[in-house]
Write a structure and sequence with these properties.
heterodimer; A: 271 residues; alpha/beta; Alpha-Beta Plaits; 2 domains; six-stranded mixed sheet; five-stranded mixed sheet; 15 strands; 17% helix; 25% strand; elongated; B: alpha/beta; Rossmann fold; eight-stranded mixed sheet; 16% strand; cell division (chain B); AAA_dom (chain B); septation (chain B); ATP binding (chain B); Septum site-determining protein MinD (chain B)
Chain lengths: 271, 269
């Protein structure tokens, strides 16, 4: 039980049913510049005819962010049908507005995070958000639960992220909020609610109840640790090695602990 | 400039409209010029709870669209001179609430009133965003059960990141917790989250605890804000809440089951 969901590389841990890993893929993106489906269809048709094999069974992402906003909205169902007709596998959209998001969800397409780069205000924020850019698409790096597939709009902007990437949060982190300390540690001196998500490239410290998710060592740092005052987390992860609430023994709940990787096995130890 | 209070929750059916009606009536009774606005466009209820449904001519959306002026749409409460109701439209949808329109109406009201109470719709859709966007204070109405607590927590996150005050890095919205439909008996039996449980999760300033009470439904049916029912526990709890909101130090009541005396036990069975 203890090592059940720790390391994906440990074949001997008896899990054997699945592995959960982070991986990156480079995928073609179809960036739409014209919302007229007929025009798109004819241009795309010409393109596909030149290299039909290239497009066959190729997963593609539809980028809607450069569509002219003042024109009639694109008919997403038709577009998806069109792409499928050419043998492509459209599986997600990005840059969708609220209406398009709803349409895409109805079609069971993934909503990929819109690039934050163009509305970045500072170097710190750029560093904080580029990680989450979906191009190339990053497979579930954080063991994302289904409800998080659509990035919540109120991802907390890094408040105290200086050049060092260290971040200090003094107010409660609420359900639905995500905080990411890029390139450094994240310290929180307030409760973290269930449904909240903490991410850091370095360590995570929580001086209050940790009821949400905490993912340290986001960029692969296996030395990263999570320290918390009161462990009630839904999920804890270090460099992609994670454990869900069910896998946390009762005697380690509600007490001060540190969480670290030992030979790629996630360990929770009382402080 | 009026202080703008949003009554919000995330979850539906927890008592937002009842609270909006009680708070606005309580403030008005204490001499504050108050207007209460129904943001639940398409599912308007506040006018019923306030008992003014038969006097609605123009509504909030008419004012936003310039089809009526504020004075035509505001309904003066018959019981209290300093209270006005701005009803929602029942025929439009929430997209009719434009940010610019809402801002203009709030600004126009701001000069003439002390408090503007915004009754938010449930959910975290457009209507709820519009109700909370310009708020100075937020009263988060929560029932003592896990789903309501989680939704409130989510709402608090949105308040702290997507309101005008948050976006313009002003002083944050003051957030208060109001626990409603509290049943001390069930809490004592361990069937319901206690005040302390909820406070531990939400870590907010507790503005009041309103007990589960038959008086609330009776008041709603009669179109009389429950705060006017001074005999009832819920009415008294709302009265205390208004006092606390205005800065009085009032002890919390109705947190524990009533201890029945021997005589009442014998006679009431």
């Amino acid at each position: 039980m203890a090592a059940k969901s720790t390391s994906s590389t440990n074949a001997s841990d008896g899990a054997g049913t699945f592995e959960l890993k982070a991986a990156s893929f480079t995928l073609p993106i179809i960036r739409l510049l014209d919302s007229d489906i007929e025009t798109v269809a004819s241009r795309l048709g010409a393109k596909v005819e030149k290299a039909p094999d290239f497009f066959r069974n190729t997963p593609v992402v539809i980028d809607l962010s450069d569509l002219p906003r003042d024109r009639a909205p694109i008919a997403l169902p038709q577009l998806v049908g069109l792409l499928r007709g050419y043998g492509m596998i459209p599986f997600g959209v990005r840059g969708a507005n609220a209406e398009q998001t709803a349409a895409a969800e109805a079609l069971e397409l993934a909503i990929l995070r819109e690039s934050y780069v163009r509305r970045t205000k500072s170097v710190g924020e750029l560093a904080a958000e580029t990680e989450l850019e979906p191009d190339p698409v990053t497979a579930p790096k954080t063991a994302q639960a289904p409800e998080k597939a659509q990035p919540s709009a109120e991802t907390t902007q890094p408040r105290a992220a200086g050049q060092s990437g260290f971040m200090l949060i003094t107010k409660p982190v609420r359900s639905g909020q995500r905080i990411y300390a890029a390139g450094g540690d994240l310290s929180i001196i307030a409760p973290v609610s269930s449904g909240a998500e903490l991410m850091a490239d370095g360590n995570i410290h929580v001086y209050g109840p940790l009821r949400g998710r905490a993912l340290a060592g986001m960029s692969g740092n296996m030395e990263a640790r999570i320290f918390c005052h009161d462990l009630q987390a839904e999920l804890i992860s270090i460099a992609g090695h994670y454990r869900v609430s069910e896998g946390i023994p009762n005697e380690l709940r509600g007490v001060p602990v540190q969480i670290f990787l030992d030979q790629k096995i996630l360990r929770i130890e009382k402080l | 400039m009026a202080r703008i209070i949003v009554i919000t929750s995330g979850k539906g059916g927890v008592g937002k409209t009842t609270t909006a009606a009680a708070l606005s009536m309580g403030l008005a009774q204490r001499g504050k010029r108050t207007v209460v606005i129904d943001f639940d466009v398409g599912l308007r209820n506040l006018d019923l709870i306030m008992g003014c449904e038969r006097r609605v001519v123009y509504d909030f959306i008419n004012v936003i669209n310039g089809e009526a002026n504020l004075n035509q749409a505001l309904i003066r409460d018959k019981r209290c001179d300093s209270l006005y109701v701005l009803p929602a439209s029942q025929t439009r949808d929430k997209d009719a609430l434009t940010r610019e329109g809402v801002e203009r109406v709030l600004n126009d009201l701001g000069d003439n009133y002390d408090f503007i109470v915004c009754d938010s719709p449930a959910g975290i859709e457009h209507g709820a965003y519009m109700a909370m966007y310009f708020a100075d204070d937020a009263i988060v109405v929560t029932n003592p059960e896990v789903s309501s607590v989680r939704d409130s927590d989510r709402m608090l996150g949105i308040l702290s990141s997507r309101s005008k005050r948050a976006e313009e890095s002003m002083e944050p919205i003051r957030e208060y917790l109001l626990l409603t439909r509290y049943d001390p008996m069930r809490v004592a039996n361990g069937e319901m989250l206690s005040v302390d449980d909820v406070q531990e999760i939400l870590s907010l300033k507790l503005l009041g605890v309103v007990p589960e009470s038959k008086a609330v439904l009776n008041a709603s049916n009669a179109g009389i804000p429950v705060i006017l029912d001074r005999e009832s526990d819920a009415g008294q709890a709302y009265g205390d809440m208004v006092s606390r909101y205005l800065g009085d130090d009032v002890p919390h009541r109705f947190l524990h089951p009533e201890k029945k005396g021997l005589l009442s036990r014998i006679f009431k069975g």
